[in-house]
Design brief:
This protein is of the alpha/beta class. It has 3 domains: 217 residues, Rossmann fold; 182 residues, Rossmann fold, CATH 3.40.50.300; 53 residues, no CATH class. It has an 8-stranded parallel sheet with strand order 3-10-4-9-8-5-7-6, sandwiched between helices. The protein has a 7-stranded parallel sheet with strand order 13-14-12-15-16-11-17, sandwiched between helices. It is globular and about 65 Å long. The two termini are 20 Å apart.
Length: 535
Amino acid sequence: MEVDEGAPSIFSSGAKGATVALNASANVAIGGVNQKKKKKREKSLKGPAKSVVPAGAASESDGELEEKLRTFEDLGLSTWLLLTCKELGMVRPTPVQQGCIPQILNGKDVFGMAQTGSGKTAAFALPILQKLAENPYGIYALVITPTRELAFQIADQFNALGSSLSLRCTVVVGGMEMTAQALALMNRPHVVIATPGRMKDHFVSDGDMARYFSKAKFLVLDEADRLLEVGFEEEMRTILQIMPSNRQTLLFSATMTGNLKALHELSSDKAFFYEAYQGFKTVETLKQEYIFLPANVKDVYLLHLLNSLDDSVRSLIIFAASCRTCHLLSLVMEEMDLDTAALHSMKTQQQRLASLSRFKAGQVPILIATDVASRGLDIPTVDLVINYDIPRVARDYVHRVGRTARAGRGGCAISLVTQYDVELVHEIEKTIGKKLEEHKTVEDEVLKGITEVYKAKRVAALKMMDSGFEDKVKARRELNQRNKMKHEFDREDSKVDTRKRELEGSDTKPSTNKKLELDDNGRYLREKSEFREDR
């Protein structure tokens, strides 16, 4: 962990200055801590881990809150918000809402940790709207979230909760026209919901953009565990530098990571921490199963599973590991007369929104998606999640299966496990503290459809080639590889420069057991021991 007094702060200024290294391998500190087809055949698918709160920090857990606050009125919300909650069917606040809303209303910086489907969005939207109603102006709040789809969902919730306010809410995400977004920001909406990359683009391309945010009262980092990873390091640094230092900062996450633990440990006692976090756990109302199968007939098992579902499954999400797999599966199911929508990053933003809208509206019962749909999306009709590909990280499994069994409802998650996935599943089971149950299948029955599925897959593969999709996949892979290499080179240059300065400023020679190598330009390379560790 590094401490850097000059880095932009995560929380507002005024308390102890400290920064947290968001990724140890990156050696960059950026966060200061402070206070504040419908099937066209016969069937159809209807449509506690150990606490890391620092000593003295204000914090509460579910058990401490359960008997204290039972209604939204108890939380200190205004009458108009109470009526809005009632109209929207929000009868009783969830634990995270009970814990965080009063603290936000009292001006505290808040860090909220709670399971998926626990009502975290309303936990920050309701108090922001109440404060906005007392002093309405724009831009009042900036909400940063890692995915475009989640940004639009948060905007929908703000608009619903703020319907009595004539709320002006703008979404700023990639894949949309920047000029139109800039004009919308110039009109000073009350709330801006953005992805970090596009928000940074606006700040960098328009020197006046920072002025529009100079009086913002709230900065919200939703899915903070993802936002504070090294992948968003540069973007978050820019945003934190622009936002006013006297803001109120709210961080919400469903999973704990090393970066968030470090943020806990460095925070002052003026920030409020809410914890309902019990590790990477899944809710008790979620039934979790697996099907063990040979990799070469995974598609056959998937189609058999879909055809065997009863009418109680209103809609489902199938998660795939890549855009190519996602697109291929959608074409295979099209050949099998199943209506689906596909959601992945190689679609345009308008296509992504259209796919999600059709799925939410019940026009298609199956959504095939990559992990862009794994975080935050709240669609009550999702009764089943299928992991076509097992996620490489247990945290991603938790987020995927969290798309069902939300807000106390039941749900099911079925993972298709091949001979190559066994270790991954064991790691997931270890992480969530629960064994997956076997979903019973009869192999002879499953394999009756092998000829039909293989034929559909061949046709789908030809369609992908004819449409140029395979070429797009190849081009993107090459671009990503170039960008990755550039990022690694930039990191290496930074390390070399730092090491060189250290050596030039030292009267002692480097230790002989830490040999330094020179490149063709005479610059120091990394220590061999570091290289082995990084590899």
